[in-house]
Specification:
alpha+beta
Length: 172
């Protein structure tokens, strides 16, 4: 059953171009923003301004929530994900390079942006810990709640094992 849900999650992620990410402000209130993202299996990546509220909030508290819904024609086709996750800045040069390749593949327009035009950015890896899989095709309001372990992340990675994760838990 878990492998079927994993594939359903990946299918939904692949159909979504944007996600809403909620971080925790300094006063404890939520701050939600829509961002474009890329993924490697169930690991999500997004970039934002280095001095943005998102970046500042994540530096203080890595807990985030994410929501995404795939395009649909009517309510009986709604499929989406809602997740509890942790976000960490990507600092490994090899991971930055790999994620950069994924970003250019998914968003080719990135190649046209000149470095002098771009404001300083940070790249973040979002690692889900709990995912609610919404699938109305299985019944109106149908959801499955899945706890995501390190092995689940590893099973969904395109390369199955990244060198920047070797020696660490994919739970990071």
């Amino acid at each position: 059953m878990k492998h079927v849900l994993q594939q359903r999650m990946i299918d939904i992620v692949e159909r979504c171009m944007d996600m809403t990410i909620a971080t925790i402000r300094f006063d404890g209130s939520p701050q939600a923003t829509v961002v474009s993202f890329v993924h490697d299996g169930l690991l999500l990546y997004f970039g934002c301004g280095a001095g943005s509220e998102k970046a500042t909030n994540i530096a203080r508290d890595q807990r985030v929530s994410v929501a995404m819904t795939a395009p649909y024609e009517n309510w009986l086709e709604i499929k989406g994900l809602s997740m509890a996750a942790t976000a960490k800045e990507v600092v490994s040069p090899s991971e930055l390079t790999q994620v950069g390749r994924i970003m250019v593949q998914r968003f080719p327009q990135i190649s046209a942006i000149q470095p002098s035009e771009a404001a300083p950015v940070k790249l973040f890896r979002v690692r889900p810990t709990i995912i609610s899989v919404l699938d109305y095709s299985l019944g109106f309001g149908h959801t499955d709640l899945v706890k995501i372990e390190a092995d689940d992340i590893a099973e969904t990675l395109d390369s199955m094992r990244h060198h920047w994760l070797v020696g660490t838990s994919a739970a990071s």
